[in-house]
């Protein structure tokens, strides 16, 4: 069959609707409401949290206990409230967790709470 060019499948593309906005314009609108630097900082913090949880629980991602550290929830609390909430979330962890808690509290200083659809 491969030797017969007339029987081969073809993929056809149609021109897109001209009324759609290009992807970069949508991104531009997003970064007007949510500063791109703030979004990147938040992403970096979330990646740091993920890596630290792997170290704290000393296991693969699938084996980490169900744990959700909500940055926005922490930002609503006072300094001691943040520390207490993190200790509650990490109570199953047998390793020392003070370095993780101190590191996270340091990283979220000055971070603003996100509102609306981008929040998990």
From TrEMBL:
This is Protein phosphatase 1 regulatory subunit 14B isoform X2. Belongs to the PP1 inhibitor family. It holds the Pfam family PP1_inhibitor. InterPro entries: CPI-17, CPI-17_sf. GO terms for biological process: innate immune response. It comes from Gymnodraco acuticeps (Antarctic dragonfish). One of its GO terms (cellular component) is cytoplasm. It comes from the Eukaryota.
């Amino acid at each position: 069959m491969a030797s017969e060019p007339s029987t081969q499948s073809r993929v056809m593309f149609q021109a897109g609707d001209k009324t759609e906005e290009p992807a970069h314009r949508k991104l531009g609108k997003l970064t007007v409401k949510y500063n791109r630097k703030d979004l990147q900082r938040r992403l970096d913090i979330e990646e740091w949290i993920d890596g630290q949880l792997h170290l704290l629980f000393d296991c693969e991602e699938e084996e980490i206990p169900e744990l959700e550290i909500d940055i926005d929830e922490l930002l609503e609390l006072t300094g001691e409230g943040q520390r207490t909430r993190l200790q509650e979330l990490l109570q199953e962890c047998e390793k020392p967790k003070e370095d993780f808690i101190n590191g996270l509290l340091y990283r979220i200083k000055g971070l603003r709470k996100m509102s609306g659809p981008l929040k998990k």
